[in-house]
Structure formats: structure tokens, C-alpha cells
What we know:
Layout: E1 2-10, H1 16-30, E2 34-40, H2 46-51, E3 65-67, E4 72-73, E5 82-83, H3 89-100, E6 104-108, H4 115-122, E7 128-132, H5 141-147, H6 149-152, E8 157-160, H7 163-172, E9 178-179, E10 198-202, H8 211-225, E11 228-232, H9 236-245, E12 253-257, H10 261-270, E13 273-276, H11 286-293, E14 298-301, E15 315-318, H12 323-335, H13 337-354, H14 357-373
Parallel strand pairs: 1-2, 1-6, 2-3, 6-7, 7-8, 8-9, 10-11, 10-13, 11-12, 13-14, 14-15
Antiparallel strand pairs: 4-5
Helix pairs in contact: 1-14, 3-4, 8-12, 11-13
Amino acid sequence: MKVGIVVPFSWTFWGAVNEHAELQAAALRGHGVDSRTLIGNDPPGQFTRVLHPRVARHGEPPPDVIPVGRSVIVPANGSLPNIVLSPRCFYRIRAALERERFDVLHLHEPMTPAICIITLALARTIPIVATFHASGELGWMRMARHVWRPVIGNIDYRIAVSPMAADSAARWLPGDYHVIPNGVLIPPAADPAGREHRILFAGRHEPRKGLRVLLEAWPGVRRRTGARLRIAGADPLAVRLLLSRAHVSDEGIDILGFLSQDDLTAELLSAKALVAPSLGGESFGMVLTRAFACATPVVASDITGYRDVMTPDTGLLCQPGDPRALADAIESLLADEPRREALGAAARRVANANYSWDDIGRRLISVYEQVLAA
């Protein structure tokens, strides 16, 4: 079996859907399934720096990635995704489909132009599985469902990463959705004890991620606990600007920028807690389950999406947008080391039981076999 994974964003700029697709491809390879990923790419250079003033990973994509065009930033759903809109990608996608001869195509965020819509239009004889990730009102779908109506029917099997994502998609595209959660990279070993006295924030610099709330809470947390805060994923210049505007000192703060998968895992394995102060717009807590896999407990906002992933055994929930509530939760966790270690151990068990990519890979292969047999 050969599977084409189709992602409408840019490989160059990290995000949850890109991470999902990369780990999906690795899981399929682990089960002996060949795959290629069709995705955008923005090579380093002046043109990319002008269009994308964000931290990025540069260099050549891996051999299993087929770049099909450059991206632009398009504000959507409280985020700033890098979406490929170039008409030139039509010819590259058509050539890739003819050359690779996929048995199944798996599209992520299938209603997002241009890569996914073009693929839906061209691949009329190939079974198509689609995963819906986003949640919320998705108001842009009001128009898109009419514009893309001719190709929507080409989707043979619909997956959502959470019940919330399924409800959001079904509001505009009624039908049957099967929930298969985001998988997580699980390191072979993780000990919740013996951690460095620090906490970690991992996410892009977007208002909905709540980094400003954490920075406003930080001086008090630092003063009362002596812990350090490490910030991963966000553009360092944007973080420093946010610190300046919030009139917060950078004392006790390490700004790491973009991290590779291995480096992020190392950070999670050494931190006492992950802090996820998002304000909303999260359909699934991928960063939460990533911490779970590393036996790292989580302090997170009590929002839909995170609430579906968190349990009382894996960390603490607090009022979103409230620096005082966030500080209290962080300090409570750091003040009780036995409790913190117990939460970390329980979180690791949850990750192994519910979010292992090995298990999710098997479930996806079963779906592919089902659509091939139909």
C-alpha cells in the first residue's frame, strides 16, 4: 500500500497539523506502509524573510516530502497558518499524483485551499480519507462549502481529531465523522523525578496561545518559587517585544525559539511542568499529550479542547486569561513534589494507553483497507 499524505500548509513553519502528518508518516513506515507527503515549502532567502517574519526550520525537506509551492500567511480561526495559494501548485500536484500512483490519499484540513482542494479535484479515482483538525465557529466555511461543493463528495471517509473538531466540521459539512485522536511521540523512557527546577511553554507566538498571560503571571511565580521559565516555539524577537509591552523583566526566562522534535522532547523530559495558558480555539491539546508522554504534568487553561484531554490525574486546570489563577496553579504544583511526580507518572500512562502512534497507525491502516475494499 502507498499512501499520499496531503497537507495545505508549509513544511518550513512548524504547527500541530504538520507535526501530526510527520508522525503519521513515521508510524505508517513502522507498519510497512510506504508514504509521501505533499506539502508547501518556503526555501531560505530574502523572499521568504519578507513574506514570513517568523522563526522557521530551513534546509531541504526529507526525501519522503514532495514540496508543491510557496505559502503566504492567512489569518484564520485565531491563528496565522502558512497556506499555499499559488496556482502553480496545480501542476506540481498533478505531476506528483501521476508519478507516485498512490493507493490512498489522506488529506489534512481538506477544505483548505489550494493544495487540498486541487487534490480533491484531481484525484477522482483514488480513495480519499480526510482528517478535520480545527474547532470553533469556522465562519469561513459558510462560503467555502458552496464554492467547494463539487469536490466535497470525493471524500470517502471523514476523521476528526476530537469530538469538538467533529462538531465544528459537521456544522458546515454534515456527515459521519470518526474520532481518531492526534498521536504523540512517546520516548522509550521518562522519569517524572529528578527534574530541573523549571517549567516550559511550547507554542507559537499567537494571542490565543496565552503567552502574555503567562508572562504577566511570571514575576510573582519566579519570586515565590525560584523556578525558571523556558519558552520554546515562539519567535524570540516577538517574545521580547511582548515582554517589553507587558513591562515584564526577562529575569529567569530562557527564550529558545524553534526546537527540533528531539530538542523539544529533551526539554519536556527535564522540566517539572508544561504550562499551556491558551485562551481558546483549541480542538485538541497536542502539546498537552506531548508532555504526558514525557511524564511531565501540565498546568492548562480550562477550555474546550484541553478539557477533553486533561484529567485530575495528569495536571491542573485554571481559569483562562487570569494571571493570578495561573500563578496559583503553577505554584501549587511546584510546592508538592510527591504530588507532581505522581501526576507525571499518571500522565505517562495516559499517553501510552490513548495516544500511541503505533496504535493509531494500525487504526489508520484499517481505515485505508476499508476504503480500498469499498
